[in-house]
């Protein structure tokens, strides 16, 4: 939520505003339209990629299982977009990618980029973390290490796990994915 004039906004903010505007435009045109669960699945030819009922059911077992599955991650991300809270997952994924950087020069610049996009006050994709965590993260940026986002990332994980994940499991998206997987596998779908 950038509050400065458009001329002083970082380009990432302007891009996010345009993206949000496009999303809202679609919702305004089709207020009852939900997302299409089939599009959550990675784009592979239908005959080569089938959603496995066992995998979909495994997503209920733990948040870890959900995010460790490519299809689960895509489905959860689609769900978060409908709630306008996908910045939490984007931040978590950015931190995971950040930990894989091997260049010290890139580490510092990427850390600053992540901070500006997700942590600083009024960031375009600001995640919901407490003031103390923001301050700690900002202090750790002075000497960017692979661990500088660990506390903020962990708090975002807990927020998603305790808040968004249970809603995802109750969502029509998840129920629909169970049905798709059940039909693809030829098994009878039973509601538990």
TrEMBL record:
SMART domains: RGS (SM00315). It is found in: Membrane. The keyword Lipoprotein applies. It holds the Pfam family RGS. It comes from the Eukaryota. GO terms for biological process: negative regulation of signal transduction. Residues 62-178 form the RGS domain. PROSITE patterns: RGS. GO terms for molecular function: GTPase activator activity. GO terms for cellular component: membrane. Keywords: GTPase activation, Lipoprotein, Membrane, Palmitate, Phosphoprotein, Signal transduction inhibitor. It is a lipid-anchor. Regulates G protein-coupled receptor signaling cascades, including signaling downstream of the N-formylpeptide chemoattractant receptors and leukotriene receptors. Inhibits B cell chemotaxis. Inhibits signal transduction by increasing the GTPase activity of G protein alpha subunits, thereby driving them into their inactive GDP-bound form. This is Regulator of G-protein signaling 16.
């Amino acid at each position: 939520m950038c509050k400065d004039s458009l001329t002083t906004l970082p380009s990432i903010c302007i891009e996010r505003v345009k993206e949000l505007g496009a999303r809202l435009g679609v919702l305004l045109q089709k207020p009852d339209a939900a997302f299409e669960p089939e599009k959550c699945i990675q784009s592979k030819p239908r005959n080569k990629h089938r959603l496995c009922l066992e995998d979909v059911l495994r997503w209920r077992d733990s948040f870890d299982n959900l995010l460790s599955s490519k299809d689960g991650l895509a489905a959860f991300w689609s769900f978060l977009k409908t709630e306008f809270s996908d910045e939490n997952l984007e931040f978590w994924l950015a931190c995971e990618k950040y930990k894989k950087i091997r260049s010290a020069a890139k580490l510092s610049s990427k850390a600053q980029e992540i901070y500006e996009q997700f942590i600083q006050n009024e960031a375009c994709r600001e995640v919901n973390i407490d003031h103390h965590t923001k301050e700690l993260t900002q202090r750790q940026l002075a000497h960017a290490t692979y661990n500088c986002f660990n506390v903020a990332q962990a708090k975002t994980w807990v927020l998603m796990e305790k808040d968004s994940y249970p809603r995802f499991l109750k969502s029509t998206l998840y129920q629909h994915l169970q049905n798709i997987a059940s039909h693809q596998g030829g098994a009878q779908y039973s509601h538990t």
